[in-house]
Amino acid sequence: MLAMWVPELPFQLACGRDGSLRDRPLAFLNPESPRSPTLWFVNRRGRAEGLAPGMPMDQALRAASGLRVLDPAPQVWWEAQGSLSDFLQHWTPQGQMGRLGEALVELQGTQRIFGPLADTAARMCRELTDRHGWASHGGLSLSATAAQIAAHAEHHLERVVEGAEASFLAPQPLRRLPDLAPRIRDRFHRLGLRQFADLQPVPLAVLAELTNATVAPDLQARVRGEDRPRLPLLTERPGHARHGWRLQPPRLPEEVALAARCLDWLWSDARHPRRLTLRWWDVDGEPHAWHAAPEDLTTPPLVLARRLQQAFLALATRRLLVREVELRLAWGLGRERALFEDSRNEKLERLEPVLARLRRRFPGRAILPGWMGQGA
Prior knowledge:
- The structure is a single chain.
- By secondary structure, the protein is α+β, with helices and mostly antiparallel strands.
- Among the domains are: 172-223, 5' to 3' exonuclease, C-terminal subdomain (DNA polymerase, domain 1, Orthogonal Bundle), CATH 1.10.150.20; 240-375, Dna Ligase, domain 1 (2-Layer Sandwich), CATH 3.30.1490.100.
- Helices cover 40% and strands 18% of the residues.
- It has 17 helices and twelve strands.
- The strands form three sheets. Strands 5-6-1-7-8 form a five-stranded mixed β-sheet. It has a four-stranded antiparallel β-sheet with strand order 9-12-10-11. It has a three-stranded mixed β-sheet with strand order 3-2-4.
- Strand 10 (273-282) and strand 11 form a beta hairpin.
- The chain is globular and about 70 Å long.
């Protein structure tokens, strides 16, 4: 597995637009503190000069005379993360996007196409620099945890050979373990378990008592470098689409212009939707979902967009800010599309573009094939 890390991606994007920002302390303004401006993200140069996220801006300007405070552009950052995903899909179909600027991809099986894995990983880092101008680091290992930590060693490419995963992880502090809950990390710290080496010899039964029976097996595999997760596909299956929208700053449900955004998504691919699911997350991370009924899918896009908005407002009753919205669609003429289509279905496939053009021309009317119109 290859873990790729583009450090400080928002600052790299800013420096790519304005070369004068390089080698200066930089920070982004917190969009949620308009009355008393504070810093949101701070780059390494700024942290070295004593700046920190949450610091009042006037105090930060006095502490670092060369500080440049930038306006946040979260939508640009998410688009850059999408560009990173598109770049990785050229090399492998399997992978998982992590935090901003981080990704984990599976390279096993690509040797016949691109050559040795280490050479492929090095080429990926070089091509990412040539194409986007982003400096990146890579970590190559059979263990996902070892690969992720190796990427943060900040060498051009850090390789952990097979069988050396446990010894590589042993001196690492537990705070570098991805997604370890703070309360569990604090419990380990109180017991004197501060490094990977302290947890590696702990029996599974004891580890289950310290955490729980569900988390313990996965945690043991990660600290020993024995985790070999099966990564999902980076791309959607044929006939499926996913549209995401991160709200920055988070907004109240009635302030989310979901109908207009969903109408754009529905018009981006005017085929007939076979399934539709709307998902959204609060600022506390709690997920919510709404599934469109079959009768909703036969309505025109204008009507369906309004129903999406109404369902969202009806279900978003908690007075919490909305952080992220996602629309998942399955396209097709009321049926699944097989990987190898029967030749008898060629006429149906030719019918779909015609229906798409009619839906764009008459957005307020339901344009359906004859058999679906009779059933609806």
